[in-house]
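Figure 2 data, in text form.
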Amino acid sequence: MTITQLYYVLAVAEHKNFTLAAEKCFVTQPTLSMQIQKLEEELDILIFDRGKKPIQLTEVGQKIVTQAKNIVNESGRIKDIVEQQKGYIGGEFRVGIIPTIMPTLLPMFMTNFINKYPKVNLIIEERTTEEIIRMLKNGQLDAAIAATPLGEESIKEIVLYYEPFVAYVPENNPAFKKKEFGVADLEENLDNILLLQDGHCFRNNVLNICRNNALIADNQFQIESGSFETLVRLADEGLGMTVLPYLHTLDMHGKSASKLRHFKEPKPSREVSLIYSKKELKLHIIEALRGVIAGVIKGAIAFHNVDISSPMQKK
């Protein structure tokens, strides 16, 4: 039994296809199949039921995959220990980012990080918070950027910044005439508020601001979308108002910018953190990533005269 064989098993278990698994492992399909077959012969069992489409794990195969994940992850830690000892900042580093943060934050730090740490192979994956937690625990991600706190005992959280919420109010809404927005104004518009679809933590953030969010269920119609761009376009059509994270509003100009309303103090906001498993050993890369992100965020926020370096109200 070898680490390579277990790595191949995990690839097939994930992709449920020998050809695709071989491509992801950068080997030929016959090579991957032969190694898995050798392992099955050594153990005198079948790990995969090849008669099903897509390929399925057998009952014993499921147990083997669970243990193989631990073995492969732990074996990789030997290299991490050596690199950390040497102070080497390089190698593959997988980062998950939730959808409501990725479009705005990633372009801000990606180029800077690559230029400063060219030996790091940074692999970015857009994932939901639920997926991120599972993948961190399974060792499939080295770190992630998400809205916190998560309340997960096995996950460490390093706060990067606090991001205020900003209301986007169409011209046909009475609140458009107001220069500053309050939580009460948001609650008064519960009958026509546009939200992200269920499953996005930002949706819950917005609902938590309002004391009587149950009224949303009584709307004449409900429109839920997976993107802020769609919500903004719907608001522009007069179908309601919406709430956006501050960084998403930085590129708005002219007529669109005139529809933005900042909340009164204390501003509702979300906490955004760099998170990772407490078992993670690539702490030198995590610190490098934190430093780059903190630098660009501080610059962007200072330029726009908004302080998100300290906690604000997070209902």
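Caption note: The first strand starts at residue 48 and ends at 49.
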